[in-house]
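Q: Can I borrow your eye for a moment on a structure tokenisation matter? Would you mind producing a protein record, from residues through to fold? Write it directly below this note and I will take it from there.
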Amino acid sequence: TWFVAKPDYTVMLANQDIDGESTTYLVNDLGRSLFFFANDEPNVSNCSGGCLDAWPVFDRELPAVVPSTISSAGFDQIDANNGGKQLIYQGKPLYYFAQDTERGQISGNAVDNWSLAGL
């Protein structure tokens, strides 16, 4: 399910039926799915080197512009392992899956230690 959104949102919400369950998760302003890495620590990314090739960081600037159903206070920024900045949600760094290039693709959700950035 996709909703009409403001053109300046940093993130939006997507909802898909995954394994028979309705799942709501974060996407970027173009609808690309965002992911969490289970090996990260709060406010620290443990993805570097080749990991960043497969899982590029979500590198948006603050303040986060978000739908009214999400609190912008849940977003912050850390120094990314690629030399830039990385947006985090509730202390968890956000990433893309390089192979998911189109809106609604979630194949990264099937990779061990990675999950959709759910609420």
